[in-house]
Amino acid sequence: MPAMKFTCFRDALLAHGPARDLKTKLRLYGQFVGSWTMEAQIKRDGGSLFEGAGEIHFGWVLDGRAVQDVWILPGAFYGTTLRIFDAGIEGWHILWNNPLSQSYPRMIGRASGADIVQEGTGEDGKPIRWSFREITPRSFLWLGERTGASGALELQTEIFAKRVGG
Question: How many domains does the chain have?
Fold first, then answer.
């Protein structure tokens, strides 16, 4: 039996940087690697507004072939996204997992000009769109849209994130 390369789960999951053969392609989400604070507003079902502060952490995983993040907003969500580049579609498979709300949508993410747009379907089978906008090295605006009663996409979540440290 061959010797194990890693001694623990953390070492097997986390990577020190992007895989060399994909370094250019992985910049889209790789630019977020690090820690962030967030201020969020969420329009809940029924129309009430939830406001809160939280944190986001992005890191390289799976031998540098994917970016994983953790989004923590007390009272709203504590989840993780796995973002995997697929050269065959020139896009990213996005898998969000929120065990608090039992939410597990899948999306495809791509650059759209200076923004990043992720499109998929929610648990109800209706279209959703999540996007990163106003991206700078120190901040970004994240918008979560879902299909409303009219059948059009409506803004549900707005998050302003600021990078922590350098």
Answer: 1
Give the 3-state secondary structure percentages of the chain, helix then strand then coil, rounded to 5: 5, 55, 35
98 in a structural domain:
yes
Give me the tens of pLDDT residue by residue for the chain, a chain 166 residues long: 777 788 899 999 999 999 999 888 999 999 999 999 999 999 988 889 999 999 999 999 999 999 999 999 999 999 999 999 999 999 999 999 999 888 899 999 999 999 999 999 988 889 999 999 999 999 999 999 999 888 899 999 999 999 998 6
State the Cα–Cα distance between residues 71 and 56, nearest whole angstrom: 5
Domain that holds residue 32: 9-163
Q: What is the CATH number of the domain that holds 20?
A: 2.40.128.20
